[in-house]
Amino acid sequence: MKKHLISHEPKVVSLPDEKFSFKNLLKDIFLTEIISGLGLTLSSLFKKPVTKQYPHEKKEAKQGFRGLHALARRPDTGLAKCVGCGLCAAICPSKCITIYTYEDVNHDKIVDRYELDILRCVFCSFCVEACPYGAIVMTRHYEYASYSKEALFMTKEKLLKNWDDYMSDEDALVYFKKYWGPREEDFVGHEGQAVFRNNK
Amino acid sequence: MESDLNKMLEHYYEMDGNIISILQDMEETFGFIPEDAVNWFSHRLSIPAARFFGTATFYGQFHLTKQGKHIIKVCRGTACHVKGSQKISDDIQREFSIGVGQTTKDELFTLEHVACVGACSVAPVTLVGKEVNGKVKSSAILKKIKQLREV
Amino acid sequence: MFGGCRMINLTIDGKQIKINKGVTILKAALDNDIYIPHLCWDHRLTPYGGCRLCMVEIKDQPRLFAACSMPAGDGMVVYTDTEQLRKVRSTVVELMLIHHPLDCPVCDKAGECQLQIMSFKYGANFSRFKGERKNAPEDTGSPMISRNTNRCVLCGKCVRVCGEHQGVGAINFIGRGFENVISPAFEETLDCEFCGQCVDACPVGALGSKPFKHRARSWVLESYDNICPYCSVGCTVTLDLREGEILRSRGISTKGINKGDLCGKGRYGLDFIYSDARLKTPMIRVDGQLKDVSWDEALKYIADGLIDIKNKKGADRIGAIGSPRCTVEDNYMLQNFMRTVIGTNNIDSSARFGFAVFNQAIEMAFGIKRLPIEMDAPLGKNVILVFESDVTSTHPVWGLKFLEAKQKGSKLIIVDSRETKLARHAHMWLKIKPGTTQVFIYGMIKLAYDEGLYIKEDAEKIENFSKLIELVQSYTPELVAKITTIDKDDFLAAASLYLTSTSRIITLTIAAAENNKGFNTIASACDLTNFLGDGPKALQSPAEYSNTFGLWQMGIAPNIKPGGEKVEKPGKTVYEMLYKKDEIDALFLMGEDPLITYPDLKTIENVISGLQLLIVQDIRLTETAKLAHVVLPASSWSEKDGTFINSMGRSQTVRKVIMEKGESLPDWQILNKLSKVMGQSLGIDNLKKLQSEVDDIRIIAGDKRLRYIAAPYVEPPVTAEYPFIMVTGNSMQHSGTLSVMSKSLTHVFSDAFIQVNTEDALKYGLVDGSYATLESIKGKTVIKIRVTDEVSPGVLFVPVHFKHVRVNELTRIAEDGTAPLALVKLTPIK
Fold first, then answer.
1. Taking the mean position of all CA atoms in its chain, how far away is CA B36?
2. Which pLDDT does position B17 carry in this prediction?
3. What is the ipTM of this complex?
4. Is residue C697 within 8 angstroms of chain A, CB to CB?
5. How does strand C347-349 pair with strand C222-227?
């Protein structure tokens, strides 16, 4: 015999009777609850507002905020730090990074194109963690909404410009190094060769 | 050169595993291992030139550059080092503007370092040609070498 | 050979294994799906025991053993993964990493680097040792192979592959101690045959492929297997693609008949598909200029032209030429189109100068229609005799088997006027006068007859016995020595070595590009095999290109149908179509460029310019296409599906791995469309249908009756005016005119040259690297001189690949089948 586990009959739920008390009666008569509510409103009227008037007022990003991507420049040459190892592209869960490299006349590895589709990015920042040179970073900048897809498709040039725009000041670098602790300082590059400097 | 090489070739044509012997013959005849001679042999014996070269660079007895008339060997053994053989070598290098293993422009002198000549009791030891100079300062060695140049 | 194959039992990691005696532990384990890590071991090479990663524990043995060099013993109990072994391997990796630079981010090997894999698996997180890292400059001068000695772990695989397996020995260990590096002699830039075997062998990033350098990370590549389009060995190449572009090709040790071996062409020459010269749209000649048109227009133009000629002058005035580079399907479709839609047997190919001659000879001599070679034919033979053939250039991977056989104890006798790679390794190299192989062989038959070195009853049973004996009677060793210019004693030594051995093969190649062997040569070789009773298998003659064998089987010949059945009314051959004026009015060329590869260009040019309609269907704008009325773009290898039949008679699938270039179409589809436009559908709508039709072809076996051919030797005329004999052929880095489209291969050499002997150079005042006029009765060209000892005096060798030096303008054809050698003179240009 089949047994219905769930009964479809409506259940009658009766609210427990509120106990009569003198205190409650007084509350009802003098509308104390409403007055205390109005009091809060009144006190907030003279306080500093919590809400930011966003386009006119901007909020500073917290440490480790994952904003717009940028490609770091080498301080000595001003070129991109990226050597095109492709680890960021390999670890990217949404596969939004593609790197194209070639061999130049000096037989060095040159990053031809570094493409990052922000519309596909999930802002996990794995790329930043994976990069052995601290070449890809995430800035504090978050205001880059746009009407066109092209504007959100980052090329090497755009990413380098992001670095100039949002990471070139001392403040930003301090922010970045403190939170992300890039490992690029553990690497020394010489003669086109990267060698891990074991400082232990 | 061709005739010398042909003479050598006669010895070794039928033998197997003769790379060292050929190189030794070359060293004896020319004083070093000339590239042309190696290629010549490699072609005739069908042994890759790289094998000759690999063997020649492995053994200290073979030289790839023309050697000077006189070979100056500065001992760099422990005893000689303690007695300051490095200074002797440095002074010779400075005087003739050559590095270790190099030959002077007039092709008279080649400077070499040797591990130990087995005459530690008279350290520091410097060999000029086959003459052993023990317990000498660099000035004396330099004088001796300069004398050789004038001869 | 090894005293019988006794089986032994052993246990590896608890698994019971039964193997042949003498096999190493590593091989036994790998064959039974047990992985033992290794760096310096390679299945093609003798064990080296250098890397010490393959250490294993053997029960009741106090020390560890290197599995790669330790033969498995009966009843052995082996452990491959214990705590102790992991510790040992960890230390080994740690030691290797002391000097190894950690430049993985810029190293192309990263991701497939054995050292990287090993350090991930066994290596420690940090190093207890600190050592100097090497920082030598990278050798980037070589066009194919970049050499970074800093990354080298000195496993010696490249040195051994190059010396032991490839027989070149271009690199070696140089120096000692910390300065020990892998380098060519005198630390020069690598200048070898650029096979790239060392690149594939290198477990780390020390040796890398130059065209691939810095182009992609290994993990973004997709791999597809395909069959190499160059020679008839039919190697399996593994193509690595990124975003639909082939970036490199590799040989993988478990795949194909080549088992990891590839030549320079297969490894570096496959970029021909990306050549700028590729055709993208159909073109029609308007006012003397080729103009881009649509497919419909082009096909309509052809259909109208062909129908017009067919109706007015008859189907017999239309001819077609097929291509050994096209697939079986394409060639089947071409003959189907010609025989069904046009209604003529005027169909032929470049195989007429080579493979057709060979097939004619084997049919006459052995009564068979096909004689495939065997990959392992040279192995285990006592004597191998190679006549005027540079097997290591034309069929490089098969050529390796000759070197392997020689190493395993076979006697290698090379009869050639050129110093080929095999000649350098041979026990005997006899410098023969080009084109006189036939005399040499008849001399051998005479010797065997006189000395009784043959099985009398068997040899006499064969047809034409008396005719053969009568013919060879005059070829005494003295006469042979006189004609072939080989020393009499050398001839006798080589001949008796061959005749007295128990297992032996003869090898010779015969091809359009090679003018030193003709029908007579192959006929005499057949006679010798018959006379000695060795059977057809003792004659190993590979077909020329990737699908020459398949093309022949598809009936691209005026006298045979697919499968080898005879045609009642044979059509016109290449000799008639291209060398005789006014034989045909329309010519359909599928993937062939007669104006480079065929001999006697002037005549062809004359005939072709008189045609009413010349249709060229090719992957690039060929020299012939420049004269065509209609040019059709065909899809190249790797852009279409199909089948190649290699010289072993094995059908191998060719895959489509990349998109077609421009508007190009597979050859069979073009023909299918054309037949529809001409109003006569062949009923083939897809490749499957076509392939099932091809599968249904019944292959005729032949009557298997042995005969002697006994073709007399014809001495070519000699004139004092033209003192040199010019031999044409393939060079090691090129194959026909296809490889010239490859950017990488033309990096090695892109300029035609002519090899002149040192003595001749002195005599005629020819300087190495200078230019000279090369002249024969047929024509004249200017060519660069290369003075070398690789050719005999009086002989010139010239590769035929390059279009700017039209070598074939000087050559001639011989319809009678004799070796049509060109007599030439060389005059230095002041």
1. 19
2. 67
3. 0.84
4. no
5. unpaired
